């Protein structure tokens, strides 16, 4: 018995080994007309294997390009669509450049810093206070994720002042949102509230 791991690796495994065998057979046929008929039959079978993509505009183009790829571009037929050249098809995309931004405190992240910079541009208003409050809660959540022991509301308040050089400050009556895993007391209170509603 021969296992698939001992056989030649498939070019496009999603079509299966049967399609690979058919393509290999088509390549070996001496008559071009016969190869063309065989290729048309293979495309028909490939379209039944992946019918979920049939509604896309370039579906037929993709099938013929897949056929060329499976044949290692050795199938000599008259393709009804334009085939992407082998070198272009095998070319790897260029790596994306990673946006290197200087972040003063990495556990807060770039978005928190950007939000605080934007808040400084706003006039002193309810909108500005609401934004600073949302950012403060996010900073508290980030501290919790980074290191639960370091999560401190006073630290968040100090960091907001440091980031904004004293321009932004949380109101004295500001209440931070609860973050992280609820305590046993919170869970038991939640259960009591549910019982009362019934």
N→C terminal distance: 66 Å
**Overall pLDDT level:** 82
Class from helix and strand fractions: mainly alpha
Poorly predicted segments: none
Rounded to the nearest angstrom, the radius of gyration is 31 Å
Number of domains: 2
Query: The biggest beta sheet, please?
Result: none
- Which oligomerization state do the chains in this entry correspond to? single chain
Number of strands: 0
Q: Please tell me what the overall shape is.
A: elongated
Binned strand content: under 5%
Helicity, as a percent range: 40-55%
How would you spell out the order of helices and strands? HHHHHHHH
Number of helices: 8
Walkthrough of the structure:
Helices cover 54% and strands 0% of the residues. The protein has 198 residues and is mainly α. The chain has two domains: 7-90; 95-181, no CATH class. The protein starts with 15 loop residues before the first helix and ends with a helix. The mean pLDDT is 82.
Q: Care to give the gist of this entry?
A:
With about 200 residues, this protein is mainly alpha-helical. The protein is about 55% helix and about 0% strand.
């Amino acid at each position: 018995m021969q296992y698939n791991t001992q056989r030649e690796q498939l070019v496009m495994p999603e079509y299966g080994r049967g399609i690979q065998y058919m393509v290999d057979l088509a390549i070996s046929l001496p008559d071009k007309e016969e190869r063309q008929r065989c290729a048309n039959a293979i495309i028909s079978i490939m379209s039944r294997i992946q019918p979920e993509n049939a509604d896309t505009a370039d579906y037929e183009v993709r099938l013929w390009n897949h056929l060329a790829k499976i044949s290692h571009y050795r199938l000599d037929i008259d393709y009804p669509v334009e085939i992407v050249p082998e070198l272009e098809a095998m070319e790897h995309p260029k790596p994306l450049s990673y946006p290197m931004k200087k972040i003063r405190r990495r556990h807060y992240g770039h978005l928190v810093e950007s939000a605080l910079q934007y808040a400084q541009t706003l006039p002193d208003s309810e909108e500005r206070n609401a934004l600073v409050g949302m950012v403060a809660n996010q900073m508290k959540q980030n501290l919790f994720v980074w290191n639960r022991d370091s999560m401190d509301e006073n630290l968040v308040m100090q960091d907001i002042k440091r980031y904004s050089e004293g321009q932004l400050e949380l109101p004295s009556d500001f209440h931070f949102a609860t973050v992280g895993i609820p305590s046993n007391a919170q869970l038991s209170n939640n259960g009591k509230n549910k019982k009362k509603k019934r």
